[in-house]
Design a protein that fits this description.
Layout: E1 4-8, E2 18-22, E3 25-32, E4 35-40, E5 55-56, E6 59-61, E7 68-70, E8 87-88, E9 90-93, E10 96-99
Antiparallel strand pairs: 1-10, 2-3, 3-4, 4-8, 5-6, 6-7, 9-10
Length: 105
């Protein structure tokens, strides 16, 4: 599994998604009180950017129709989304947030 640098840890505000593109994959990186998570930035229901939504209780909400996705698993909490989105392994080295988009969980 290979990791690429997504951003600086110090650049992440808690519960504020940061959109990055890693190897052509749109990714939302989110720092919460539970850790740092990386989730595919495209809603599985409406094909819009999840990083434009709000984060609360380790869930990211799609701003268009209100579906929320668990940052840990990618699973939706309810309708209208029914399919999960990919989540990616994250590791922290110093101030670097590293994400592996090669292997989906």
């Amino acid at each position: 599994m290979s990791y690429v640098r997504a951003c600086a840890l110090s650049a992440l505000q808690e519960d504020v998604p940061k959109k990055v593109e890693l190897n052509g994959v749109p990714v939302a990186v989110v720092r919460t009180d539970e850790g740092v998570f990386a989730i595919n930035d495209t809603c599985s229901h409406a094909n819009v950017s999840l990083s434009e939504g709000e984060v609360e209780d380790c869930m990211i909400e799609c701003w268009l129709h209100g579906s929320s996705f668990d940052l840990r698993t990618g699973k939706p909490s309810g309708l209208p989304a029914t399919r999960p989105v990919a989540v990616y392994p994250v590791k922290i080295e110093g101030d670097d947030v590293l994400v592996s988009v090669n292997q989906e969980n």
